[in-house]
Each structure stands twice: as C-alpha cells, then as structure tokens.
Amino acid sequence: IKSKNNNQIYLASTVTLTGLIQSPDAIYIAGNVNGEIRSDRAIHILKGAAIVANLYAPDIQIFGIVEGHVTATHELVMNPTARVYGDVSCKSLVLEEGALYSGVLRIRKE
C-alpha cells in the first residue's frame, strides 16, 4: 500500500491483502482484498480489482468485482464494468448500463 499523496491510499494490482484496510483518506484498490475496507472519505474499486470484503465509506465507486456488503452513507456508483454480489445500503445510487448487481438494495433517506 502506498500513498499517492497526503489524501489518498493506493493498493497496486500486484498486491493481495487479507484483513482490515482503514483510513481517513480516500482509498483506491487495484489489487485483491479479503476482509474489510473502511474510509472516512471514499473507496474506489478499480477495474481488474477482485474484492471479497465489506465496504464502508461516504462515497464508493466500483469498476471491479466486489463480493460482500457495501455501505455508502452518501453515494454509490456502479460503473459499466462493476460486478457486485452482496447487500447494498446507500443514500444515492448510480447504476450505469452494463453494471451487474445481485443482492438486497436499501436506499436510506438520511
């Protein structure tokens, strides 16, 4: 894991991590994670990433594959290459054409 700058954490595509990733900064994942990912700002699952983990952040963007619960307290964006298998909870959802989703969806008012 390396910091792209003072406000972002980046996990390279060649890295596989098991456990908890937690940061007050935005997290960009290009590799593989098994466990849990938490950010106080945003999580970006990049194309080619394979995630078996629960995700928690205000804003989450998914381009890769996620198996697990996804909780975005603000906005969740599933891009055309996204594959999400698990329950989702968010305030706002953007599901772009081509994205695949299987699970229970909960849209929260607050």
Descriptive account of the structure:
By secondary structure, the protein is an all-beta fold. It has no helices and 13 strands. The protein has strands at residues 2-5, 8-11, 16-23, 26-29, 32-39, 42-45, 50-62, 65-67, 70-78, 83-85, 88-95, 100-102, 105-107. Strands 1, 2, 3, 4, 5, 6, 7, 8, 9, 10, 11, 12 and 13 form a 13-stranded mixed β-sheet that branches. The mean pLDDT is 93.
CA-based gyration radius: 13 Å
User: What is the tally of helical segments?
Assistant: 0
Main pleated sheet: 13 strands, mixed
Q: Catalogue the unreliable spans.
A: none
Q: In one word, what is the shape?
A: globular
The percent range for strand residues is over 45%
Helix content: under 10%
- Count of distinct strands: 13
State the secondary-structure class.
mainly beta
Q: N-to-C SSE series?
A: EEEEEEEEEEEEE
